[in-house]
C-alpha cells in the first residue's frame, strides 16, 4: 500500500470534503480519492456524500468489483483513529400511546350518542302524529 500509514482522527479527515480535496474512511483506512473524483462511475457527488463519516457501509452496499478494491491501494494515505468515530446507536422506536385493543366501550358510547337523539326525535314525531290523529 502507498502512503506512510499515518493515523488520522475523523475530524482531520472530515476537513477534506470538497471537489479539490476529498478523503474517505473505508474499513478503518483513509483514502484520498481527489484524483479519482472525475473517473468514479457513480459520479463525484457519491464520493462527496460519503465524506466526514465511516463510509464502509456506503462502499459495501454498492458491491464494488475486485478491480475497484485493488485500485484503492493507490489512494491509501493512512489509518483512522477508530476512537474518534461515533459509535452506532441501536435504533429505538419512538414511544407511542397505549393501544386499546378492546374498543367496545368507546364504540358503544359513540353508537348511543347517535341513536339516543334519533330515538328522542322519533318519539317526538310519533307523539305529535298520534295526538293529531286523536284530535281529528
From TrEMBL:
Keyword Cell cycle appears in the UniProt entry: no
Entry keyword set: Heme, Iron, Membrane, Metal-binding, Transmembrane, Transmembrane helix
Limits of the Cytochrome b5 heme-binding domain: 5-81
UniProt key word Heme: yes
Pfam family, one: Cyt-b5
Coiled coil: none
Transmembrane segments: 107-130
Family designation: Belongs to the cytochrome b5 family.
Name listed for the protein in its UniProt record: Cytochrome b5 heme-binding domain-containing protein
Amino acid at each position: 500500500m502507498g502512503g506512510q500509514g499515518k493515523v488520522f482522527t475523523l475530524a482531520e479527515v472530515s476537513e477534506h470534503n470538497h471537489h479539490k480535496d476529498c478523503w474517505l474512511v473505508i474499513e478503518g483506512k483513509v483514502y484520498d480519492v481527489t484524483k479519482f473524483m472525475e473517473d468514479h462511475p457513480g459520479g463525484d457527488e457519491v464520493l462527496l456524500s460519503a465524506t466526514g463519516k465511516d463510509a464502509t457501509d456506503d462502499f459495501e452496499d454498492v458491491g464494488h468489483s475486485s478491480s475497484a478494491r485493488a485500485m484503492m491501494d493507490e489512494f491509501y494515505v493512512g489509518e483512522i483513529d477508530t476512537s474518534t468515530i461515533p459509535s452506532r446507536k441501536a435504533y429505538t422506536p419512538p414511544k407511542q400511546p397505549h393501544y386499546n385493543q378492546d374498543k367496545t366501550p368507546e364504540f358503544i358510547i359513540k353508537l348511543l350518542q347517535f341513536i339516543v337523539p334519533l330515538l328522542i326525535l322519533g318519539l317526538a314525531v310519533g307523539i305529535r302524529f298520534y295526538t293529531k290523529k286523536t284530535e281529528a
